[in-house]
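Disease resistance protein Roq1-like winged-helix domain-containing protein
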Amino acid sequence: MQLFNQHAFKKEAPNECFKKFSLEVVNHTKGLPLAFKVWGSLLHKKGLTQWRRTIHQIKKNSNSKIVEKLKISYDGLEPKEQKIFLDIACFFRRHGRKKVTRIVESYDSGAEYILDVLIEKSLVFIFEYDRIEMHDG
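Tokens:
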């Protein structure tokens, strides 16, 4: 919720009249950090009418815009970064960051830097217990 609020309101807590709408957006975006960023940025400085319309839109087709953003992020990666992203997607989801970095570094140098790039582009994120996770799009 805080991540969404930071993008929608540029602060951690929404105004009282937006709390209900914020919760609705967070619930419908299924906890995807990228969705929080996309929809929060879209709703920043918008009125209640626009919020209602946007929530209706999210309920109808939220995944398509998110997948589109993820594809743009993926296409912008260097070939080596794409390879490591795919390795993580296929073999290392939910594994510890240090373990993944060590394994990837054994066959491809620059793993730590590339992992940081993937995090920055919202393609992967670090979850509980320092585990690498990805969006389910």
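The two ends are 19 Å apart (CA to CA).
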